Amino acid sequence: MRQVALVTGSSRGIGFAAAEALARAGFAVAINGPADDEELRGAVRRIEALHVPVMAAPFDVSDTGVHADWLGRISETLGPLTTLVNNAGVGVLQRGDLLDVTEASWDRCQAINARAVFFLSQVFARHLLAKERPAGLFHSIVNVTSSNAVAVAVARSEYCASKAAAAMVSKALAVRLGPENIAVYDVQPGLIATDMTAPVIEMYRQRAVDGLTLLPRVGEPADMGAIIATLACGKLPYTTGQVISADAGLLVPRF
Ligand SMILES: NC(=O)c1ccc[n+]([C@@H]2O[C@H](COP(=O)([O-])OP(=O)(O)OC[C@H]3O[C@@H](n4cnc5c(N)ncnc54)[C@H](OP(=O)(O)O)[C@@H]3O)[C@@H](O)[C@H]2O)c1
């Protein structure tokens, strides 16, 4: 029997790389983005080319009212879900002084980066616990939070707060779902070259070479995909509740 994953925010960036890595590992994959647009359909076609079952699951993760319906549809189409990758995320509406942060930007970060992670995971867990699960499959939730769950970027403080919340959600889920044999991981990417970081990535490429990260380069989405697939395949057996600092040593304390 196949593993079946929903990867949120997988129309591009880290989420797409995760979907691709999972497909290469033999998973059936549901590709998600907030809209049923050409970007989402293009991502589905690229995964189809890997000859695994795939479907589009267009929904806004912050719309909690549709979660249960979509998880049901995915299981009906691809088979029983085994894996949830909570990757969808947004940055701030405007970088700048903490004293100028708007409620709209705070609420958007919380709704997509934290609240959606909690409630989609809740529905996913209920979905798994409602049925007998076949032996031999690895069940997990992989949350993509950020180095900013730990390290302050003061010009994006509302993003940092939302990622810190998601990191605590990961820990709480690990505690609740451990006895149910569902592993939960928190992947904390550092500086990864995607659309989200496009305006600043060239500056960070140089800073990485200059020593900001221990390994002297920024990350690629494929690096994150490999980490997420490793976790979702159960290749770190006898672990749960772990934070994976996917950051080339960015946050290793030194002086
Ligand atoms: N890049 C980095 O350096 C970095 C570092 C630390 C953490 N992260 C985290 O890694 C995750 C992926 O980041 P990325 O760099 O790959 O970002 P990205 O290139 O901006 O891609 C974000 C993805 O999430 C989707 N998305 C956004 N809002 C959504 C919603 N409400 N419902 C469903 N899907 C939604 C986007 O869909 P559309 O294309 O339709 O907008 C897109 O597929 C995020 O959680 C981010 O915070 C990234």
UniProtKB/TrEMBL annotation:
Pfam assignment, any one: adh_short
Membrane spanning stretches: none
GO terms, molecular function: oxidoreductase activity
Alphabetical keyword list: Oxidoreductase
PROSITE patterns per UniProt: ADH_SHORT (PS00061)
InterPro entries per the UniProt record, alphabetical: NAD(P)-bd_dom_sf (IPR036291), Sc_DH/Rdtase_CS (IPR020904), SDR_fam (IPR002347)
Protein name: 3-ketoacyl-ACP reductase
Native source species: Acetobacter oeni
